[in-house]
Structure formats: C-alpha cells, structure tokens
Amino acid sequence: MRNTTKTLTTVLAAGALALGAAACSPSSSNDKNGALVVAASPVPHAEILNYVKDHLADKAGLKLEVREFTDYNTPNLSTQDGSVGANYFQNQPFLDDFNKKKGTDIVPVVTVHLEPLGLYSHKVKKAGELKKGATVAVPSDTVNEARALKLLDANGVIKLKSGVGNEATPKDIVTNPKGLKFKELEAAQLPRSLDDVDAAVVNGNYAIEAHLKPAKDAILIESPKNNPYANFLAVKKGNEDDPRVKKLAKLLTSPEVKKYIKDQYQGSVLPSF
C-alpha cells in the first residue's frame, strides 16, 4: 500500500507539472504575438466569443482562443496567474467581492451584456402562489445571493433591512410573510434543483444552459434599468493595453455583436452598449 501510494503521488505530481507547463504555453497571456486566451462561461459568454472568433477576429487581425469554465472561481484565478489572458463571465459587484477575498487584482475592460436574474418554478406560475413555508433555492456565493434576495425584495416577496448591500443574506430579511425557507446552492446546481424545491433564483447563463428562457419562463425577472450586474471582459491589472485585448474589446461592442445578441437570445440576454 505504501509503495502504491508513493507511485501514485509521483504520477500525480508529474501530471501537475505537465498541466503547469501547458498553462505557460506560447498561447498564454505572456505572448503578445500569440492567441489571446479568454476564459468564459459556456453560455452566453463563450458563444458570443466564438461568434467573434468565427466572424470578426480574422479581419481584425486577432487570434482568439476560447476556454470554457463552468464555475465562477477558476476564470479569475487563471487570469491572475497568467494561464489565460482575459475572462468574460462576471459583473462588477462579483469582481469586487472576489478581489477583496482572494487578493487578486482583476479589472474590467469593457461591458458587453446583461443576463437578467430570474425566479423559476416547476410548481407555481406566480410568485404569489408560493405556499407558506415554501423552499426557495438561491446562489451560495455572496454577491449572487444578495442579488437574488434583492430580486425578491423588489417584487414584494420579502423585505430586506434598509441599506443592505451586496453581502445580504437571509439573516437580513426583516419581513417574510410566507415564512419562506432558503436553500443555498452553488449557482450551477440551481436549474437542477427545480424539481426538489418550490422555486429557485437562477443566474441567466445557467438558465439558458438548462434550456430555460428567462424572458418567457421566469416568474420574476430583474429589470435592466440601472442594473449594476452587466457582464464584462476583464484582465489582470496592467494588461488593459495589450493590443489583443483592445481589439477584442472593440469587437465585443461592435454593431455585429449587438445584433447577434439580440437575434440569438431574444431578450434573455441584453446588450449593454
């Protein structure tokens, strides 16, 4: 057993070194003549980036590589350590919280779109139909949980204490007429929870991945007016002037991309430029 463990450890270590070498390959953020590698959530971020790659990048002289991630931590960590040159998946309150907690220095470059957060249910058609003691699933990360609770507050389902910010939790609820119970889940798990809870507040990208149509299926949805949760292209501080980043920023806010977002997502994703 001891020899087997030692052998396994050696293999794993070698694998880790290989992955590290791959992360520092010529396509990484350090090679300004190589492809710009961008970490992105699959939907809609990677889809939008792949549209740029397939239809606009060559003409602009941009080599683009899109790497998909399904969590909200790895893209920023990979941007910070240089494994990727940029990321596209997050909003400003989330980034502010991440930088504060992780000691990273990721900065936004250009704002591209908004994915309205929505309340979904397989059991009721209106929020007012939720029964007393119903269970509502919400994202477990700090900013998106606060965002979910603010959505419920804005629609009169609950009331949060005055002045609560982007760190609001169920403990900040001062009025809860239906005695709702809140279940905290990783954001990616929320669509799969709909059969097990009475309702769930789901981020737009995960809703779309689960074949939900926010503009049609959500029983409550965020208003885009003065919404601080628009998603942007981001880089490690100091890389804002990378010529590849500037080219991508211009393409992501082009008329062609605006039309693509409107046509492709039919109101489930909204251009923010």
From TrEMBL:
SUPFAM superfamilies: Periplasmic binding protein-like II (SSF53850). One of its GO terms (cellular component) is membrane. The keyword Magnesium does not apply. It is found in: Membrane. CDD domains: PBP2_lipoprotein_Tp32. Keywords: Lipoprotein, Membrane, Palmitate, Signal. A lipid is attached at residue 24 (S-diacylglycerol cysteine). It comes from the Bacteria. It is a lipid-anchor. Residues 1-23 form the signal peptide. Pfam families: Lipoprotein_9. Belongs to the nlpA lipoprotein family. This is Lipoprotein. It comes from Streptomyces violaceusniger.
